[in-house]
Design goal:
alpha/beta; 343 residues; 6-stranded mixed beta sheet; 7-stranded mixed beta sheet; globular
């Protein structure tokens, strides 16, 4: 019997009687990280990693109980032994290791292998069955070094300053925005200005001790504040709203793995695209699967077909696992509830 099955409420572990990142309210939910497609409100009780507690509270509120567990510490749910291990995706992100009936399964959640100053690095976890994300599971998706991309962002900002433009960088409000703010400390200590959706999440990261550029919310400035040469960080959906008018003349940039394909930037009308993703690239996926030692791999939310074909050619039992997880959205993705409220 499989330790994890797909139900109408999400990934269910029968031996432990709990769900991993359920998409409907359930009695017991183990959360990989705080993005809204993984941490949803309404469940009775949540388990998350200790570093992810602040973000989980921000996402699901205080209505349900939350138990925070240190990375690597085992706890028991029903007949299952469970532990959480760093996934390297965002602050507090975790892989879920489940042991029951003589088998070990790992649910990866979202993860990446590139270094990131805002969260603990991915930790390979040995298992029999590995449920892996496949957001960027095509050979075209290979990431440049983060420090190279950070330099590109900084140089673009300085070019905007020289041209008398505001530099508005669009980045997901949880994870990507904070990573950019941390990476840019290599080059400057100048203040960045934040869309309202980004502000509370930056505070959570600061409270966790993450070093970032100084920031100020957009809206705190005087009426005739000069936006020329300033860096503004906003969620992607803000670029298509009247909110952007105050910054004109403005150059828009977008940070995402989707920017690896030039046509994506053109279709979405960004002035600049920066290839910076919080998901594993093609090589990172293959490396992580190999290091897991899994004999069976289930791939979800992404380009699963190409990954499955390669894994089967390598002798693994590989197949797709259909779920409601969204993965990293393109630049035209709608704002989530927090972003809409702050727009």
């Amino acid at each position: 019997m499989d330790l994890i099955t797909v139900t109408d409420k999400g990934l269910y572990c029968a031996p432990g009687d709990f769900y991993v990142d359920p998409w409907r309210p359930v009695p017991r939910a183990v959360i990989t990280h705080a993005h809204s497609d993984h941490a949803r409100t309404g469940s009775k009780h949540y388990w998350c990693s200790t570093p992810g507690l602040g973000l989980t509270r921000a996402r699901v509120g205080h209505g349900g109980g939350i138990t925070a567990v240190p990375y690597g510490e085992t706890f028991t749910l029903g007949e299952a032994r469970v532990s959480l291990h760093p996934a390297g995706h965002v602050l507090g992100s975790a892989q879920v290791r489940i042991e029951a009936g003589g088998e070990v399964w790992v649910v990866s959640g979202d993860y990446k292998r590139d270094p990131d100053p805002t969260c603990a690095p991915f930790e390979p976890v040995r298992c029999d069955v590995f449920i892996t994300e496949a957001t960027f599971a095509l050979p075209v998706y290979r990431w440049p070094a983060p420090e190279v991309v950070a330099r590109e962002i900084f140089d673009w900002w300085q070019a905007c300053k020289a041209a008398g433009e505001c530099a508005m960088l669009c980045a997901y409000s949880l994870g990507k925005a904070q990573r950019v703010l941390a990476e840019l400390t290599r080059f400057t200590d100048e203040t960045a200005y934040l869309h309202g959706a980004v502000v509370p999440l930056v505070k959570v990261y600061r409270d966790a001790g993450v070093k970032m550029l100084p920031t100020e919310p957009v809206g705190n400035q005087t009426k005739f504040f000069d936006w020329k040469g300033r860096l503004v960080i906003a969620p992607p959906g803000a670029a298509g709203t009247p909110w952007i008018k105050r910054f004109r003349p403005v150059s828009t940039g977008f940070c995402s793995g989707w920017m690896r394909v030039r046509g994506s930037r053109r279709r979405q009308a960004w002035d600049r695209g920066f290839v910076l993703s919080d998901h594993a690239d093609w090589d990172g996926l293959l490396l992580s699967i190999e290091q897991s030692g899994a004999r069976r791999v289930l791939a979800t939310h992404g380009n699963t077909d190409a990954l499955i074909e390669v894994l089967r050619a390598r002798g693994l039992d590989a197949s797709a696992l259909r779920t409601e997880y969204e993965g990293e959205q393109g630049g035209s993705a709608p704002l989530d509830a927090a972003e809409e409220a702050a727009a």
